[in-house]
Amino acid sequence: TTQAPLLKVERMVTGYGDLRVVRDVSFEVRAGRLTVLLGRNGAGKTTTLRAVSGLNKLAGGSITFDGEPIDKRSVADRVRMGMSYVQEGKRVLHAQTIEENLLLGGRIRKVRRAVLHEEIERIYSLFPILKEKRSLPAGSMSGGQQQMLAIGSALMAKPRLLLLDEPSGGLAPVVVKEVMQRVAELKETGIGIVLVEQAVEASVAIADDVVVVDMGRNVLAGPAASVDLEDLKRAYFGAP
Ligand code: ATP
């Protein structure tokens, strides 16, 4: 399409203090599309998301959101601009109900409770299981359901861009498929998604674009439809 990218990361360099763990990473995401970042443990995927969200500072390269350079913007500014980040292993509040968790997710918006309740209804239509269990403590749900609640809470901020770090973490394969299916459906709401995953097949299946990162560098990038799964697994994940 001719539509400008929502997020554009160019030749990003970042890390922790003087330690550079991301040395040359580039990718884009358009509205209603999903880009998956794959790579071994320690490749620099989480650090890439942290830098996009503003938690890590850039040592080189650039990040633009909606055409505007944002690498000097604070985390809070980026949230206000429409970015929402679900960190790896993000926990929901176990003792609070599902609905209370969702309300907390919307807290950063200075809007009336009635508006938040409209938003909650929209999230219930995306994740019907959350509606069914709305009055139960979040800790009573399964891991997959809690992951959906974590995503739902992030959506309460009404983001245009969702950064998702390993939503499949610790889930059984059949549950991973279901979470991925729900994530794929989110694209239809028009938001752009950056997904970091270890579950290669399940995530490539819902992706529009695939980026493989190794040692903090792009080693493969292209449309998901053009990526050969077997090649990808052999080259980067040590499959036989
Ligand atoms: P994983 O799937 O294991 O999270 P990843 O691709 O997301 O892997 P990162 O978490 O970005 O990788 O880590 C990249 C490198 O940065 C690793 O070598 C890691 O040890 C290092 N690292 C991560 N967090 C810190 C930190 N807070 N301080 C210093 N080094 C860190």
Structural write-up:
This protein has 240 residues and is of the alpha/beta class. Helices cover 35% and strands 26% of the residues. It has nine helices and ten strands. It has helices at 45-53, 75-81, 98-105, 113-126, 128-132, 143-155, 173-187, 200-204, 229-237, and strands at residues 7-16, 19-29, 34-38, 58-65, 68-69, 83-86, 161-165, 192-196, 209-214, 217-223. Strand 7 (161-165), helix 7 (173-187) and strand 8 (192-196) form a beta-alpha-beta unit. Helix 3 packs parallel to helix 6 (143-155) and helix 6 packs parallel to helix 7. The longest helix has 15 residues, at 173-187.
What secondary-structure arrangement, pairings included, does this model have?
Blueprint: E1 7-16, E2 19-29, E3 34-38, H1 45-53, E4 58-65, E5 68-69, H2 75-81, E6 83-86, H3 98-105, H4 113-126, H5 128-132, H6 143-155, E7 161-165, H7 173-187, E8 192-196, H8 200-204, E9 209-214, E10 217-223, H9 229-237
Parallel strand pairs: 3-8, 3-9, 6-7, 7-8
Antiparallel strand pairs: 1-2, 1-4, 4-5, 9-10
The chain binds adenosine-5'-triphosphate (ATP).
